[in-house]
Amino acid sequence: MTLAPNQAYAWTGQVLNALRGALHDAGFAEILPAILSKRFEPGARHSLAVLGDRALPTVRSIADDQGRPTVSAIGADYYYLPVSHCVEKQLALEFAERVYCVAPCLRLLMDGEHESGRHLYTFFQVEIEWRTESVDDVLTTIERVLATMAETILTRPSQELTMDKDAIGRIAALGRRPFVRLPFSDARDRVRGAGGSVNPHAVGDLTHAEENALSHEFDAPFWLTDYPEGVRDSLYRRNGSGTFATYDLVLPGGYGEVATGGLRPHSGDDIRQQARNLGPVVHDQYAAWKDRTALQTGGLGFGLERLIRYCAGRSDILELRFAHDQGPNATIDEGQRLCA
Q1: Quick one: 137 and 172 in the same domain?
Q2: Domain holding 272: CATH number?
Q3: Least crowded by CB within 10 Å, which of 3, 87, 222, 322?
Q4: Of the residues 80, 103, 128, which one is the last residue of a structural domain?
């Protein structure tokens, strides 16, 4: 049965309020996200906002060489739209100790993702970051935040929320600490026979079929840790073992990855070196900031709608699309896909 629209609103409000409260209890200050930026996100596939000169930009629909519809926009200036707030939240830590924001993001769907049940064009990322040099500190802190959030939902549910026995069990699992920590290499070995198409983001990453099989092996959230080079599309601290101090939080029961993060590169030189492996942009501004401040930070970003989908027990994330959302998410259930 499809989720009723009023329940999509109720679950979103319940999870968001409980998560904000848990982060506040853990000492995190909420900051406002930056919506537009002249800075290119390391490893990202950005979309652009075109600003008009005191008027709407001129937009033309044209066909490309193969007859496919495309759009041309002419305006006074352009900015990158956010795919995350990974760098912005680090910059904020020059003036704060522990921060988070609920950041609106726009990402292009890759092959197969319009049918995954958990990918959206526009979504919200709960970006969390603080001054730390310890992966253990990050993982235990986030586990505590989730446990507090789960307790709030279970003990103080809103009157509008319909929560059955299965939902209570799923949410209670968020507080079942400590979570298993599974090195990426071990995870690959466990699900190597699951098959699936090559991950469109990185050839060496788990396929969607492998991630789904792994998620079904657990009845509580678990961590994937110690990713090798060439798997992630962002910049992270290097481990001595040749892996990176990075991690994913995966939900059980086939709900899949809900958060991604890591410790940040230790120096400006390492930022430049890793950035060259991801594309032509070296990110000198970010590297110079790292050299000037010498701040060492870590954190992660939660896919908010994915967390809500898990709590509500929905197979398709589109059931959580608000009635007031008339953006590109409305095209996903029509089988349409913007070109990546």
Answers
A1: yes
A2: 3.30.930.10
A3: 322
A4: 80
What letter represents residue 224's amino acid?
L
Q: What's residue 197's pLDDT?
A: 59
The confidence score (pLDDT) of residue 181 equals 98
For every residue of 229-293, DSSP letters joined together read TTS-SS--PBPTTSEEEEEEEEETTTTEEEEEEEEPPSSHHHHHHHHHHH-S---HHHHHHHHHH
The pLDDT score that the predictor gives to residue 185 is 94
The most confident of the ranges 49-53, 226-230, 242-246, 290-294 is 290-294
Query: Smallest Cα–Cα separation from 301: which of 148, 115, 127?
Result: 127
Average pLDDT rounded to a whole number, residues 72-86: 90
CA triple 202-101-268, angle to 5 deg: 55
Determine, yes or no, domain membership for 211. yes
Residue 146 lies in a domain: yes
Mean pLDDT computed over 172-191? 96
Residues in the chain: 340
- What is the tally of structural domains in the chain? 2
3-state class of 9 per DSSP? helix
Q: Which of 28, 57, 80 is the endpoint of a domain?
A: 80
Q: How far apart are CA 128 and CA 24, in angstroms?
A: 12
Domain-embedded: residue 276? yes
